[in-house]
Amino acid sequence: MFPDVVKAWQHGPVIYEVFESHRGQSSVVASDIPGDPNALSVADKEIVLSVLDAYDGLSGDDLAELTHSEDPWRLVYNGLSGLSAAVISNDSMRKYYSSLMSASEGERLRHHVPRVSMGGRSFVSDEDMALLDSIS
Questions:
Q1: CB burial class (10 A; 0-12, 13-18, 19+) of residue 7?
Q2: What is the 8-class DSSP label of residue 61?
Q3: Neighbours of 85 (CB within 10 A)
Q4: CB under 8 Å to 69, separation ≥6 — which residues?
């Protein structure tokens, strides 16, 4: 949905551009975020709303603890934050979270896996990912 790089910072995954635009804020509300949500496709809106619903109510500490237990952050964190932090690859996120989509109910609940209706599909195949990459 967006081209920005995700980095493994001390307290969890960060998109630097988002961090920079909200630096110093203890909370962010929808009106603080530029852009037009109506420009999203119906499928993208469903994904965003599902993710927001899945993580609703978690504190910053809860989110940090959760991301620190997950492979995409855990396997690349290099002890640095900011521009020197390690990149979390889209491929590692896709593989990890796709595997969670097919995990046991208990595991999905423990990781707050969003419930997204994707026409029976709960992962993105390598072929689909290649197609999506060629479009962006």
A1: buried
A2: H
A3: 21
A4: none
Q: How far apart are CA 21 and CA 33, in angstroms?
A: 9
Question: In the chain, how long is the greatest CA-to-CA distance?
Answer: 41
Q: Give residue-wise pLDDT tens across range 12-64.
A: 999 999 999 999 988 888 888 888 888 988 888 888 888 888 889 899 899 99
Which run of H or E residues covers position 16?
helix 16-21
Pick from 45, 13, 66, 57: which is nearest to 116 by CA? 45
pTM of the model: 0.75
Q: Which residues contact 115 (CB under 8 A, 6 or more apart)?
A: 50, 53, 54
Residue with tokens 């195949």: 125
